[in-house]
Recover the amino acids of this structure.
């Protein structure tokens, strides 16, 4: 358990700093820890994705939610919130100027 706590604290420190650097408050997050074998030694690893689906992220200045709570609380378009996080983190392709359109059901 001590190793799991140490990993969670390291992830928290890293994510908090990255998000703060782009004007986002990391409110909380969830991760899964897995075990892999390195030769004969077990190692613990983060075995989960880290995204707005697994974190609560708020804009530092406005408090606007930029995570799955946008969907849960019907606060607007979830794609817009996720696109904003991606834009701030610099992982959105430069030619994308708006959120992708929603999928449509074809009968």
């Amino acid at each position: 358990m001590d190793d799991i706590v140490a990993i969670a604290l390291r992830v928290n420190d890293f994510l908090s700093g990255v998000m703060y650097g782009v004007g986002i408050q990391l409110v909380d997050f969830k991760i899964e820890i897995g075990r892999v074998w390195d030769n004969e030694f077990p190692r613990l690893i983060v075995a989960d994705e880290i995204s707005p689906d697994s974190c609560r992220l708020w804009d530092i200045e406005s408090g606007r939610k930029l995570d799955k709570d946008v969907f849960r609380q019907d606060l607007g378009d979830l794609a817009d919130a996720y696109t904003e996080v991606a834009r701030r983190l610099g992982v959105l392709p430069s030619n994308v100027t708006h959120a992708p359109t929603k999928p449509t059901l074809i009968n």
